[in-house]
Amino acid sequence: MKKYLPFSMDSVPVAALRDANPLTLSFVGDGVHTLFVRAAVLERNPYKNNVLHELASSYVCASAQAEDAKKLFPLLNEAERFIFNKAKNAKINTVPKHAGIYRYQLATAFEAVTGYLYLSGQNDRLTELYENIYSDKFPETQVSDTENEKKDEEV
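The chain above was modelled as a monomer; its predicted structure follows.
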């Protein structure tokens, strides 16, 4: 899992991140999470771009992130829970069509914790949490070449 995460070279002080707008942390976390998922999907499923996009989108949509947030919350320490709750309770002005407000709040909280850990340079902690969440979704085995050829023919 570690090889799929972009690692921050510099870090922002934790005190500054605690005071940061949680939606800003979520914005950064969304980018980090999306890059992680795209890299993991690409290695295991070297299909055409439209298939890759569909696969990646199924992991980074608000509904999927809300489910991941439920797995994530029990694993969080006190500082991470503070960020999670702050983001979950932030005033959100828009909600996507395919997710209710509660799911969107959970997805925002998931992204904010990702952004917090990334910006604070806690790369090992982010890896640890993602391994717990994604170990069953991204098994270490790759799809065989014949499966890829079949998928290419379908598209």
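Residues 141-148 have pLDDT under 50 and may be disordered.
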